[in-house]
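Students often ask why we bother encoding 3D structure as a string. The short answer is that it lets us treat folding as translation between two languages. Here is a chain of 663 residues written in the first language.
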Amino acid sequence: MNLAFLLSIFLSPPPLDRWKMYKSFFENAPYPLTVVEENGVISYANKEFAKLVGFKMHEILGEHFTKFVAPEDRERLEKYHAKRIKGMHAPSEYEYRAITKDGKIKYVRIKVIKLDENRTISCKIDLTREKEIESLFKKMAQSSVFAFFIYQNDYFVYINDVAEKITGYKREDLLNMRFWELVEKNHRKIVKERGRKRQKGESVAPEMYEIPFYTKDGKIKWGLFSFMNISYQGEPAGAAVAIDITEIKEARETFEAIFNNAKDGIFIISKEGNIIDVNEAGARMLGYEREELKGVNSSHIISGSLKKDWENILKARKSIVMETENIKKDGSLLPVEISINFVSGKGKEYIVKIVRDISRRRSIEKELKESEERYRMLVELSQEGISICDEDGNITFVNDAFAKMLGYEKKELLKKKIAAFIKEKKRIGKNRYEAKFVTKDGKIKTIIISSTPVYKNGKYEGEMSVNLDISERKAAEEKLAESEALFRAITQSSMVGIFIVQDGKIKFMNPAFLKIIDYGKKEIEKMDYLGFVYPEDKEKVEDEMKKVEEGSKINIGEFRYVTRDGKIKWGNMAIVPIEYKGKKATLATLMDLTEIRKTYEIRRKFIEETSHHFFNPIAIAKGYLELAIERNENVETLKKVNNAIGRIEKVIWNIVERGEICE
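And here it is in the second language, the structure alphabet:
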């Protein structure tokens, strides 16, 4: 029943009937009621009010109303009463704390109406239970490991600490946001539509789904949200519980990438033996499409001894590695090596069967006629190190590769703590670690560990690890880092321009290159790699660049280029194919020939002028001498003069052509 409606009936009857109405109403009202006089004394109260405060009726009547108000709220309520009696504005509905006879605090909502004769009547509702539930809810929400929030009228109205933590926002920031503002833009529309329906109290399905959302630093996380319709402060609202599944989703995506791109066939099989899923490699090696194999019982694709033992393998639930033959779609047999493992997840057991096509290996085995034992050893050596530990970390199994990796015999490792061989270990992904192992001779090896828990009948029994020795790769990476440092030192100090072209752009340039072409680094990064080449020479340079892409080392030779201020200069460029950041690229060196060409041109002109000034007079003199000789005028003397001039002419030719002073 509405408080305002209950109290309004006191204002309507005629004065003569009011006392009778008061008495009847007080006796039957379901809510605590009091009448307070101008001086604050309670003149009337009903049994519900007595029950609320725990006093007898004679202990209430004639007492000031503040006797039943908690000390913290007395001054506030006295001010409201004084203003109301004087005809001034005072709240007519509010909450306060009442105090009971035994000193307990109760939370009360009150509705007050002023009557004639400067008295007031008020109706109260006990909110204590509601407040206790609200307090309990807040404590549970704040202590929860899940994010929890409530939204109403499009805005967040309640946020717990976990919601602050996973979003990176402070509570006050979130309370000023619309509930959809954190949602990744491609999912925002549907979340907004569904959320608004929940605000109206409408039923929305599904109630649980994955949503990407933005954190304060702009990163995208994934959360698993469970939504619900609730009533908050008397109005419909939406609420949600969420958990951050970013790492789980990344691990799932990593698994899917491995599953879909693995070269070996991977079959996921139910405990009944039906194929739940198979990767592309597994379907392809048997000549099927993936969808054709889903739902098929795995016994239809196996043959030989495995087919006879398949039911026993399923019942035994033991991991097994063996060679057998699978039946292809065309009926032919494919020799394979299979690894069968039993895993548990979400309360169910699955069989993971890894199938490797060994037809090529069988062919090699036949050609080489190696014994079965030698072949088994070859397989053992080609595999990664595998170890299994029990729940206490004791080694229960190692393969030859793992034993050799650490320099031990297999029996020396069994029953030892795996931690005894690990110097340091750091996580690099879901169930992946990079560890420093100490070998038997005291050396340190860097090994990547990929581990998976082992369950039996739902009970954790230990861990299986695949170990990859990356010590040589680490050493190579360090050498690569040294080489890169040396390259940087050379390129930074070189007087020759050095740059790298990749995907039609200049991706690297040293200071000398920028100085030669007189461009800034950012300008070069924006332009095409031929942008600085003189237009008439671009085709030549581009043709040579295409040749180098085919693996040739090219000396382009002389070409013209244009500086930023429009000057045309000459350069010499050599190019060679390289790999840069994992992709094909071209390394080029550029020398500025402009000054050299100027010097050459000066020399050429000097020689031409020198030749002209020397050879013309000599030629004339020789002409006259030859004419005189023909006329027999002092022939011997003239011949000697002619020979002398000839020797001078040779000397000049040697100077002009060879730069040497000799005959």
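Translate back mentally: Confidence is low (pLDDT under 50) at residues 1-14. Keep this in mind for the problem set.
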